[in-house]
Structure formats: structure tokens, C-alpha cells
Amino acid sequence: MNQALPLSAWLYTAWSVFETTLTGLAFETIPFLLLGTLVSSIIHVFVPDTVLRRIFPRNRILSILVALVAGAFVPICECGTVPLAKRLHEKGLPLSTAAAFLVAAPLANPMTIVSTYFAFEGGPVPMFLYRAGFGLGAAFIIALIVESLSRRNGGPATASGSAAATEKSRLRLLAAGAMPRGRGLTLRPPRMPSVSDRRPDIFSRLAAVLDHTSSDFLDSARFLIAGISAAALVRALLPAAAVAGSLQHRLPAIGVGAISAYTLSLCSSADAFVARSLFAPVSYPAALVFLMLGPMIDLKNSILLARFVPLRRLAIFIAIIVIVCAAVALAASSFVGGLA
Amino acid sequence: MSISFFFVWLINTGKLEHIVHPRMEPWIIAAGLLFLALSFYQTLQLSSAPRRADPLSHFYPIVLVFAVAYLFVKTAGFQPEPFQAAPSLAIQSALLSSHDAAVENAGKGPLPSRIVFDDSTYWTLYNRLYDDPKAARGKEVTIAGFVYRKKGFPETSVLIARNLMWCCSADMSMIGLLAQGPASAEIPEGTWVEAEGRLGSIDYDVSGSGKKSEVPLIDLDSIKPARHSASTIIYPY
Questions:
Q1: CB contact under 8 A, B208 and A276
Q2: Within a 13 Å sphere around the CA of A150, how many CA atoms are in the beta-carbon half?
């Protein structure tokens, strides 16, 4: 923001940017959060744990690799992957697998890859390949670190409490109206099947899907709104000169790229064009870290994740993502021609 | 339910395109239908099991109503006016030229003697001119946009600008061509204009980093306020 403007003009301009950004982010993120909670509820109601265990191998490394690829089949932006990842973990998948899905799905999304291709088309660097390749590599490393920390802490690597080990216990939980834990905000408890129901019929299941979608969405939406408000505020106040003047040297450029990705909270289907105009051709390493980090974690998603993850663990998770992405971008720029 | 009707109203009035890229429309429609289904279902369940006691459950719906009402009022009066912002990050990023040393691929063919910018060709022509300003030197140009003056512009120089939207209004940024001519000094900032002139180039520090690069410049023959005949927003893909 141009500090030489009179205060009143500066405030008016800042409010204008804040309002426009907030409106745009709201319309961009709320549909995907709603659809993400719908898919999450469908998985909760219709997909037995046994099916998920067949898809995701018991071997943790293989399970992480499957999670990395699974994101390609989920064309939802990063806001919608949060409730999905949460649900997968609650269904019994290891924390590292859920984390791998959370950070990799927005990167493996075909819309992200295509938009990156068009944004850097004609340039000297095949950024869409680098973004996908190095990004998924970073996601794999992040998941391994999460797995290592989970084992070291001695806690369960799979979710406890709400995850049902068998089909019978899953249906029992469904009939009991399993609700989101914590400060869950609900309009009403999910429908309770009658005592004579041995197995909920399709209508009960559909009703349960709608119930869970409503409660999960309302529960998450307030945190999402807080997140996009914070992102809009940062956007309104961020000085433009901070980006332009820091790109000449590799390390500061990567740092600026990482901070920009976190604070701008851009949708992964559009951030490639912003990255191109902000960083290329001055600093492709900064563009790479921007494109890897943004879909994995940003300001609005951090606040959304705070609903489900204890703050201390969330801070550690964010730090892991930032450090790994920066390290991968630095290493890539040292060894890959064109990125330097 | 109010959110569903709000989405429908935005789509029917065309105001949605001022907030999100048109390719987002199917997602907005899907979300609107889902909100409608959820609201009908919850309405039907109102008479069944008692509500869980939660102090926030009384407060939250009221906040949502106010939020939707605010958005409705904001977008109801929405006119396709220029996204006026001082040099914020968005605008600085837009003014940064996206050209590299490589020239646009030869498949586009030679530029015509008179280059006319319209909504469908704006992005392609914009990139061609910034990629290789020399190739367009001497050619006549017709362009429409709103007037923007950056701090430090000479009095007779303006940016004839449009808003560029990649995904939504949150990532909207401003692009345009520099133009100079005595007539431009009298036109207030934000005015929608139609301009004609001849293309040249100038070395200009677009990014504000102290490094100048060659960018296209319109030597104006005429610039006059005009009625909005096109949207201010360009959707590049």
C-alpha cells in the first residue's frame, strides 16, 4: 500500500481492497467447502472402513503414495479437501495418509496442472511439470515426517473413538448419530433410526448424509469466514514493494515466495498466473515455492484446520510444510537448469 | 435458502461475473442447489427431535442473515466500475509484464496494420504487444478502457486499463497499455474512454524494482470519454 497517500484515501482504498477480496474469496471457497463436506458425509455414511482399507494398503509408505495419487480424482480446491482429509482419518486411515491427501490433492488436481501449463506457456521453464513433480515429492516428505512424529509421540497413528473397525460398529455409530467432536455447532442431531431398524435403509442414509453435511458445513464455515477475512485483511495491507525488492537473491526470494503464498491465500487454479507476474522471470525458485506451498497451506486454510487440529500440532504441521517446500525449491534451483 | 436464492439472483442478473470467473458458474449452481436441498430438509425436520442446546445456535443464523443481506445490497448496486485501488500488491503484480526474452509463438501470424482491442482478443493482443513491443511499432491501435494514473506518471500519460480476473475478484488485477497525449491530462481517473493512436515503445520501470524494460506505448491521436460498451473485466481463459 502506498504510504504516501493521505490517511483517509489510504483507509478507503484498503477497505475497497478488503471488501472486494473478501467477497471474491467467499464465493470462491464456500461452494467447494460445501461440496467437500458433502463428499465427506457420503464417505462417512456409504463407504465402509473395509473398503478404504482395501484401497489404501496397510504399508504406510504405500498408503501415502496412494493418497498422493488419489488427489488427482478429487477436483475440489483446497478448502474442500480439509473436511475430506478429516473424514478419511476418522475412518481409520493413518494420520500420515490423511496429511498426504490434504497437501497433495490440490497439487494433483487437473485444474491446477492445466492452469499452470497455460500460465507459463512459452516460458523457458516447464513449470507445470516442476510444480507437480517437486510438489508431490515435497508432499511425500511431509507425510513421512508426520508419520515419524506420530510414532515418536507414541499416539495412535489411526483415529480413535469415532472410527469403526467393522461394518456393524459403523452402522451402530450411524444409528447413534455420530457428531463432530469439539465445539460442534448443529441445528439438530442427525435422524435417529427406529429401534426396529437393523440396517438403515437408503432414505435413512440419505437423511444422515444431509444431516452430516449441514452440521459439518456450519461447523467449518465460521472458521472459513474467519480465515478469508484474515486473508483479505492481509491483502489490503500488504505493501507491494516488499515483493519486488526481495527477488534478486535466491534465499530471500524463496522466503518471500513462501510468505506470499501463505498470506495471499489464492485458489490453486489461479495462483499460477499471479506467480508468473509476481516472480517470473526474476526468480523461478520463488515462483516454484509459491506454487508448491500455496495449495498445501495458507492463512485461510490454517484457520479452518484450527477447528480440527490442536493449535500446537497445527503450528508444527505448518512449519514442516514451509520448511520442506523451501528446501525442495532451494535444492531444485541448485540442480535443475532454468530454475536458477 | 436465502443463500440459494442469492446465488440464483446473481446468475440471472449477470452480476456473478463481476465476482467470480464464468467458469465457476457450474460450481455456484451446484452449491446453490445443495443449499436449497439442505434448507428444505432442515425445514422438514424442525418439528422432530429437540434442538441441542448451544448458545451460538441463536446467534449464528442472525449473523448469516446479516452477511447475506450485506452481500445482496453490495452486489445489487454493483455497476461495472473500475476496480479502483491504489498500487496494492494486486495492481503491482498486474503491471509486471509477463513477457520473457522469448517472442510469442509464430503461429499467431503478423499483426494487422490497425489493431483493435475487444474482449475476445484483448488478452492475446496484450501479451503480443508486451512480448515484442518493436513488432507493433507504427501500427494504429483502437482501444477502450478506464483511465488510471499511477503515482509518478507524467501529467500527459495515463494507463488505459481493464480488470483481469483469473478466478474471482480476490485475484483481480489491472492491466493496460500506457498512453500519452495532451488530451489525456483533462480526463479524470476512472473515466471509461475510447482511444486511438499509434503504437511505439518506451523504457519503463514496470515492477518498481529500479529496472526498466521496454513496454508498448500509445501515442494518442484521440482520447474521449465514452459510454460503457463492454465489461471492465477480461477473462483470459
A1: no
A2: 18
Q: So what's the pLDDT on residue A242?
A: 57
Alpha-carbon distance of A337 to A13, in angstroms, equals 42
pTM of this prediction exceeds 0.80: no
A123 contacts B57? CB cut-off 8 A: no
Residue A246 confidence (pLDDT): 64
Residue A309 lies in a domain: yes
Please, how many CA atoms are within 13 Å of residue B172, restricted to the half-sphere of its CB?
Answer: 31
Q: Any residues with CB less than 8 A from the CB of A197 and at least 6 apart, and which?
A: A175, A204
Are the C-beta atoms of A64 and A140 separated by less than 8 Å?
A: yes
Cell 490442536, residue? Answer: A310
Nearest CA in chain A to B30: A31
| Within a domain: A244 | yes
Please report whether residue A132 resides in a domain: yes
Choose from A147-161, A227-241, B38-52, B156-170 the range with maximum mean pLDDT: B156-170
* Per-residue pLDDT, A131: 93
- Identify the sign of the CA torsion B74, B75, B79, B83: positive
Distance from CA of A53 to the nearest CA of B (A): 30
Q: Domain tally for chain A? A: 1
Q: What is the pLDDT of residue A143?
A: 95
**Which of A204, A277, A278, A279 to probe the B interface (max B CBs under 10 A)?**
A277
Which of A1-10, A156-165, B145-154 bottoms out in mean pLDDT, i.e. has the lowest? A156-165
Kindly tell me the sign of the dihedral angle through the C-alpha atoms of B10, B11, B13, B18: positive
CB contact under 8 A, A20 and B41: no
Q: What region, left, alpha or beta, does residue B150 occupy, with left being phi > 0 and alpha being psi -120 to 50 degrees?
A: beta
For chain B, domain boundaries = 2-76, 89-234
Domain B89-234 belongs to what architecture? Answer: Beta Barrel (2.40)
Of B60, B105, B209, the CB nearest to A122: B105
Contacts of B90 in chain A (CB under 8 A): 17, 235
Please write the tens of the pLDDT for every residue from A70-99. Answer: 887 877 778 888 888 998 888 888 999 999
Q: What residue numbers bound the domain in which A276 lies?
A: 29-335
Counting one residue from A and one from B, how many pairs have CB atoms under 8 Å apart?
182
* A195 within some domain: yes
Chain B positions in Cβ-Cβ contact with residue A271 (cut-off 8 Å):
171
Under an 8 A CB cutoff, do A17 and B151 touch? no
